[in-house]
Amino acid sequence: MNHKGEFWVALNAGRLGEIDDDIPDPIGIKYNQEGRILKQLDGNGPKSIAFDCKGEWPYVRVSDGRILKWHGPKLGWKEFAIPLSVRYSLNSQTLVSSVERISFKFINGLDIDSNTGVIYFTNSSTTFQRRYVDFLSRSTDNSGRRILKFNLGTNNFELKVFAKLPRVPDNIKMNHKGEFWVALNAGRLEKIDNDVPDPVGIKYNQEGRILKQLDGNGEDVFSSISEINEVNRTLYIGSVTKPYVTILKL
Questions:
Q1: Domain 7-84+96-247: what homologous superfamily?
Q2: At residue 10, does pLDDT exceed 70?
């Protein structure tokens, strides 16, 4: 039970091999005190979360490539789309490829301030590439761990360090006030002591000052955070591996 009186129930899969993609595979369900299911995904890794222009319930992309939409507690998550192709513009150009003369290896998430044209993005590592992400999250490498920014309105695309981070960052998301939440991947294999700081998300203003910090308290539910999206004083938290979206009221 959490502090709101809601429950997470772990479900033991009990399977010996792979199952078909079209078969539901729930491994955890969240209930309120009336027994109503609050959150469950038929799939793993709701890594990125988005709301449409109408502010309707969130869309998430899960690890098998599908995009799901939340239709409320009665209908739950429903398949919205399956991206099958991409198109490359011939007018595309490289804006930046290095910082302090060190080439990028693992650029992760980005967001753009539509009012100023400033791009903010996370640099997870200048040593390891994306395919080594599991090793990176469990290593002591701190060659990245930064938020970088540059202005599309200038011609030289001068890159600046916006903030330095205590852990490997994943996605970065701007709220309606122009403030940012950056998700930090804990990369831990076991529960840690309660008195040890466990930052899993940090909120910044546009000057790079820390406004809030989300502590995971060593809980497994926060061990693989990918994104924190703040909408209407609510945090929607995505995951690289978990089969659910975590919701926290501010």
A1: TolB, C-terminal domain (2.120.10.30)
A2: no
